[in-house]
C-alpha cells in the first residue's frame, strides 16, 4: 500500500558565492540564495559588507527596487555591522519568474532567508513595504533584536489612488498579459516618466537626477520578467495588511 505525500510549496536551498567585486554592487561580497517556491527555484542575490553585529537591510518594493538603493546606507553602517542587503524575489538581480506575487511568498521567503543566513537575533532596517513583513515575522518568532523602519508603507500606489480590488486586479492581469501588458509596462517605465517620478516623489535636489542615474534605473526596469512583481506591488497585491489600523496594530505589538 502506498501513501501519498504532499510536498511543501517551498524548500530552503543553499547559498553560493558570486563575486567579491565592487562593480557587482556596493563593494561587498555578492552571493546567491537558492530557494524553491511551488516547485520553482528562485535565485535571490544578496550582498554582505562589514564586520560586527549582524544587520539585515531590506529595500522597499518598487519598479526600480534593488539593494543598491540602500547601498550608501550599507557603507555607512559597515564599520560597525555585518550588513546584509538583498534583492527581493522578482526585483533587482534576483529571479523574476511570472509568479502570482503575493504576501504569502515574501513572508515565507523572509523567514527562510533569515534562518539560512543568520544564526543569532539580528537588527533589521526595513524600507517601505518591507516594514509589514518584518513586523509580522517579529510577532511569529524572536528573529530581531532591533527593528528600524524607513518611510514605512502598507498600501500599494493604485489602491492609494482610490482603485478598488476589481480595478486593481484588472490592471494587474493586463500588465501580466504577453503583448499589451509588455507595451503598457514599457510606457510606464519610460526614462521621462521615471525622471518625473523621482523629481516629484523622491529627490528635493534635482541635480541628483542625472541621465546616467535614470539610465541605471531604467535598465533595472527592463530586465526579463520585471513587470510581474512590479505590477503586483503597484496594484496592491503585495500589501501584507489591508487597513491602516492593521498596520498600526503590528507596530504597537
Structure write-up:
InterPro entries: AB_hydrolase_1, AB_hydrolase_fold. Helix content is 39%, strand content 21%. It has 253 residues and is an alpha/beta fold. It has one domain (10-252): Rossmann fold (3-Layer(aba) Sandwich), CATH 3.40.50.1820. Helix 2 (103-117) crosses helix 3, helix 5 (165-176) packs across helix 6 and helix 5 runs antiparallel to helix 9 (226-234).
Labels describing this entry:
253 residues, alpha/beta, Rossmann fold, 7-stranded mixed beta sheet, 10 helices, 39% helix, globular
Give the averaged pLDDT, no decimals: 91
**CATH classification, class level:** Alpha Beta
The count of β-strands is 7
**Rg, Cα atoms, Å:** 18 Å
CATH superfamily: Alpha/Beta hydrolase fold, catalytic domain
Based on secondary structure, the structural category is alpha/beta
InterPro entries: AB_hydrolase_1 (IPR000073), AB_hydrolase_fold (IPR029058)
Domain AB hydrolase-1: 56-235
Pfam families: Abhydrolase_6 (PF12697)
Protein name: AB hydrolase-1 domain-containing protein
Amino acid at each position: 500500500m502506498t501513501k501519498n505525500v504532499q510536498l511543501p510549496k517551498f524548500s530552503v536551498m543553499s547559498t553560493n558565492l558570486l563575486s567579491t567585486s565592487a562593480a557587482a554592487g556596493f563593494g561587498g561580497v555578492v552571493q546567491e540564495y537558492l530557494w524553491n517556491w511551488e516547485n520553482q527555484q528562485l535565485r535571490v542575490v544578496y550582498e554582505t559588507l562589514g564586520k560586527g553585529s549582524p544587520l539585515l537591510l531590506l529595500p522597499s518594493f518598487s519598479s526600480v527596487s534593488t539593494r543598491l538603493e540602500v547601498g550608501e546606507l550599507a557603507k555607512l553602517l559597515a564599520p560597525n555591522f555585518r550588513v546584509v542587503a538583498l534583492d527581493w524575489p522578482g526585483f533587482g538581480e534576483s529571479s523574476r519568474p511570472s509568479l502570482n506575487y503575493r504576501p504569502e511568498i515574501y513572508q515565507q521567503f523572509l523567514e527562510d532567508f533569515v534562518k539560512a543566513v543568520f544564526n543569532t537575533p539580528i537588527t533589521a532596517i526595513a524600507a517601505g513595504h518591507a516594514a509589514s513583513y518584518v513586523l509580522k515575522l517579529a510577532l511569529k518568532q524572536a528573529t530581531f533584536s532591533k527593528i528600524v523602519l524607513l518611510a514605512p508603507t502598507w498600501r500599494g500606489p493604485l489602491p492609494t489612488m482610490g482603485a478598488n480590488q476589481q480595478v486593481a486586479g484588472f490592471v494587474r492581469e493586463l500588465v501580466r498579459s504577453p503583448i499589451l501588458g509588455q507595451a503598457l509596462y514599457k510606457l510606464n517605465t519610460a526614462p521621462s516618466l521615471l525622471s518625473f517620478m523621482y523629481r516629484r516623489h523622491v529627490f528635493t535636489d534635482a541635480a541628483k537626477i542625472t541621465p546616467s542615474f535614470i539610465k541605471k534605473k531604467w535598465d533595472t526596469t527592463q530586465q526579463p520578467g520585471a513587470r510581474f512583481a512590479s505590477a503586483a506591488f503597484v496594484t496592491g497585491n503585495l500589501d501584507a495588511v489591508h487597513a491602516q489600523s492593521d498596520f498600526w496594530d503590528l507596530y504597537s505589538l
